[in-house]
C-alpha cells in the first residue's frame, strides 16, 4: 500500500489508542480541574466549571472512578482539584487516595464547586476556573478530551489556540480512511512499532472484562448473559464486552485503552475480537491484524459522526468488531463491507442518553447485531442498495450514517439533554 497512507494509519492508531481511567468524560473534567489547580499553584478556595451538554450527559449518571462511589460533574471536578496534574491526563484520578476522597465528600454541596451548562459551544467543551484569594487560573478543553485550548493565570494568558495543531493534523489523516485501504493495511503492514499499543489494548481491556465478570458492577449485564445463555462464543463475545463496561461504568479502578475518545468503544472494538481469536485458535499475528482493522474501522465511522453525539458509539464500535470477526474467519474485502452494511442497517437508530450502567446492555446488543451481520455475510446475505440508508457503495453508506448521527440527530441530542436536566432540577 501507499507508504504515506500506511504512515497515516499508524499515526491514527497511536493517537487513538491511549489509556483512560474510568469513563472518559469524568476523566476529562477531573483533568481540567487538576490542570487548573496546578496552574493556580495551590489548592483553590472554590472552582467554577462550565460544560457542554454532551459532557454533562455523559458524567451525570456514571460513577467517577477511584471516588468511593460518587457520581457527577461536581464530584469529578472537586476530586480532580485535589490532585497535581502531571502527564497522566485521562488517568489523573488514579493518583487519588483515601484522604482526597474524604475531602471531596466533605466539600460536595458546600458551594465549593459550582457547575453549569455552557451554551453555544461544540459537543466537547469544558471550562474550569480555580480561585484562591486574588489569584485565579482558567483552563478550557475543546474538541477532544485532553485538547487544552486555553490556559490563563490572572491576567496572563499562558496559551491560547482555537484547535491544537495535533488535532488538526489528525483530522487531516483521518480524511484518508476508507475500508479498502484499512483492509489492505491490516493485511500487509509491519505493525512492530505499534505492537505495544495492541498488547496494552488486549491486556487492559480483557483485565477489565474479567473484573466485570467476576464481580458485581452496575446491572451486571455480562454476568447475566453468561448465567442464562451458556458459554458459547457468541455469548462470550457479548458477555465479556458487556462485563468490561459493567465494571468501567461502575467505577472500577482499572485503565482501559480507548478508541474514538471512548473507553466503551475501546472495549467493544477489542474484547469480542480477542474472544473470537481464542475460539478460532488463530495466530497472534492474525489477532493483531484483526485489531488494527477493528480499531480503524471504528475511527472511520466515528469520524463521520463526531466525538459526542446522540448516536450511540457502541453501534459504530460493534460494527467494527463484527468486521474484524469476519476478517478472522478469512473474509474478503467484499465480505467485510457486507458485515459493516448489515450491522449499520440494523442498529443505526440507537441513541446515546449518557454514560451509565445501561451502556453495557447497548454494547451487548451492538455486538449481537455485529455477530448476526457476520453470520448473514458468511451465508451470502447482505442488505441491498436502496434499503434505508444503504447505498451501493460502502463509503457512501458510512457517510449516510454519519450525516444522520451528526446532523439528523442534533435535535434529538438537545431533547435528551433537556429531559435529563429537567429531571435533575425536579429532584433538587
Automatic annotation (TrEMBL):
Q: What is this protein called?
A: UPF0597 protein H8692_00910
Gene Ontology MF terms in the entry: L-cysteine desulfhydrase activity
Q: Which residues form the Serine dehydratase-like alpha subunit domain?
A: 144-418
Q: Which residues form a coiled coil?
A: none
| Pfam families assigned to the protein according to its UniProt record, in alphabetical order | SDH_alpha
Family that this chain belongs to: Belongs to the UPF0597 family.
Give any single GO term for biological process: L-cysteine catabolic process to pyruvate
Q: Mark the transmembrane ranges.
A: none
Amino acid at each position: 500500500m501507499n507508504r504515506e497512507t500506511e504512515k497515516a494509519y499508524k499515526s491514527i492508531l497511536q493517537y487513538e489508542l491511549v489509556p483512560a481511567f474510568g469513563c472518559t468524560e469524568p476523566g476529562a473534567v477531573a483533568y481540567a480541574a487538576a490542570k487548573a489547580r496546578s496552574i493556580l499553584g495551590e489548592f483553590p478556595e472554590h472552582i467554577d466549571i462550565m460544560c457542554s451538554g454532551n459532557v454533562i450527559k455523559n458524567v451525570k449518571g456514571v460513577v467517577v472512578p477511584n471516588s468511593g462511589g460518587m457520581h457527577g460533574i461536581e464530584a469529578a471536578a472537586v476530586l480532580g482539584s485535589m490532585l497535581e496534574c502531571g502527564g497522566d491526563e485521562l488517568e489523573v484520578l488514579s493518583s487519588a487516595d483515601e484522604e482526597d476522597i474524604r475531602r471531596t465528600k466533605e466539600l460536595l454541596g458546600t458551594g465549593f464547586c459550582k457547575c453549569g451548562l455552557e451554551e453555544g459551544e461544540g459537543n466537547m467543551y469544558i471550562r474550569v476556573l480555580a480561585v484562591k484569594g486574588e489569584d485565579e487560573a482558567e483552563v478550557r478543553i475543546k474538541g477532544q478530551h485532553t485538547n487544552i485550548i486555553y490556559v490563563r493565570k490572572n491576567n496572563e494568558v499562558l496559551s491560547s489556540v482555537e484547535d491544537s495543531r495535533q488535532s488538526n493534523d489528525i483530522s487531516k489523516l483521518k480524511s484518508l480512511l476508507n475500508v479498502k485501504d484499512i483492509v489492505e493495511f491490516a493485511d500487509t503492514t509491519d505493525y512492530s512499532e505499534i505492537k505495544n499499543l495492541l498488547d496494552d489494548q488486549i491486556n487492559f481491556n480483557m483485565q477489565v472484562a474479567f473484573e466485570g465478570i467476576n464481580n458485581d458492577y452496575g446491572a451486571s449485564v455480562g454476568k447475566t448473559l453468561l448465567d442464562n445463555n451458556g458459554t458459547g462464543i457468541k455469548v462470550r463475545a457479548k458477555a465479556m464486552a458487556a462485563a468490561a463496561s459493567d465494571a468501567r461504568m461502575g467505577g472500577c479502578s482499572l485503565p482501559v485503552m480507548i478508541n474514538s475518545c471512548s473507553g466503551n468503544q475501546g472495549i467493544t472494538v477489542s474484547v469480542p475480537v480477542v474472544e473470537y481469536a481464542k475460539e478460532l485458535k488463530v495466530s497472534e499475528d492474525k489477532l493483531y491484524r484483526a485489531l488494527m482493522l477493528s480499531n480503524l474501522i471504528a475511527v472511520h465511522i466515528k469520524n463521520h459522526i463526531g466525538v459526542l453525539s446522540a448516536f450511540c458509539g457502541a453501534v459504530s464500535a460493534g460494527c467494527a468488531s463484527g468486521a474484524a470477526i469476519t476478517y478472522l474467519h478469512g473474509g474478503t474485502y467484499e465480505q467485510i463491507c457486507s458485515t459493516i452494511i448489515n450491522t449499520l442497517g440494523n442498529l443505526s437508530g440507537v441513541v446515546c442518553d449518557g454514560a451509565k450502567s445501561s451502556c453495557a446492555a447497548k454494547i451487548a446488543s451492538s455486538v449481537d447485531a455485529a455477530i448476526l451481520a457476520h453470520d448473514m455475510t458468511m451465508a451470502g446475505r447482505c442488505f441491498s442498495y436502496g434499503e434505508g440508508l444503504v447505498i451501493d457503495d460502502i463509503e457512501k453508506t458510512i457517510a449516510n450514517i454519519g450525516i444522520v448521527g451528526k446532523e439528523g440527530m442534533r435535535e434529538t441530542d438537545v431533547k435528551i439533554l433537556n429531559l435529563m436536566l429537567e429531571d435533575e432540577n425536579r429532584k433538587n
